[in-house]
Specification:
about 130 residues, homodimer, disordered N terminus, DNA-binding
Chain lengths: ~130, ~130
DNA sequence: TCATGTAGATGCATACTGCACCTATTGGCA
DNA sequence: TGCCAATAGGTGCAGTATGCATCTACATGA
């Protein structure tokens, strides 16, 4: 009962958000491949489908990854212009952690597969209900 | 089996966690298909690859979905044994919202695809290293 | 009448995230 | 020279989500 006719039926809050902590594995992978600094990594993330990332999230995540020993950073003061950059590279722990993340992401992948298996089936099936 | 790499930084936090709010679309889809109650839905989630879900999260999410008008519930007092159950069904808003979620999940799917495209490439590359 | 299984729900501490805001360096240009 | 924009990195805060523990309540069988 109680068909809650709240006027905000058009809520689309998380639908535009990436699952939170995915930033971590995508950053790790990006660092593994490009060994770049935060500002650039932030832009490279778009390759993976991230839209505009919040700089705060990216820098905070990177510092956290370094505190955890998964990446290490050096200052690059030879940049052509602009302030010095903190250039990141993966540590061995980071490589291992990335592997762990990869297998977790495989899990999410199969969850999505099963979701769309059911969703697609249902979409074709619907309206034939008794 | 979450081979807990114990070496130095023994953090293995999110690798075992599903992206948070995915509970929502998977619950919506489950309700659409089975029109069941929380306790059972909680068990059905394992079909999609969710491990043991926290009951608190499931019930809280369901009540929230109802507050938002995406599902509606009726009490089923005819259960063979045990207390009454709150049986959920999708509202039209819920159907729409599920569609929105589905397209978001498609996005995550393609993010995972691009992740593994890069990851696989890199893995093959690194193994070829002498 | 008590323990157990079923069913639903809440409170709290912590964690994550988005947003706003801040510092600093370099170079262009009026 | 002084100012602004672009580049680069970072912090604080508030809102939300989550895991865990805990609680109520019903039904049944011993």
């Amino acid at each position: 009962m109680s068909t809650n006719n709240s006027s905000d039926s058009g809520r689309r809050p998380e639908a535009s958000t990436q699952p939170r902590n995915w930033l971590q594995p995508f950053l790790l992978l990006s660092i593994q491949q490009w060994q770049s600094h935060g500002y650039e990594l932030m832009q490279r993330l778009s390759v993976f489908g991230f839209e505009a990332m919040d700089p705060g999230s990216v820098y905070r995540t990177l510092r956290q990854l370094e505190r955890d020993g998964l990446v290490s950073s050096d200052w690059d003061t030879n940049s052509s212009h602009g302030p010095a950059r903190r250039v990141y590279s993966l540590t061995e722990s980071g490589e291992t952690y990335l592997q762990t993340w990869a297998s977790a992401l495989r899990g999410y992948q199969s969850m999505l597969d099963s979701f769309f298996k059911s969703y697609a089936t249902d979409a074709g099936d619907r309206r034939g209900e008794t």
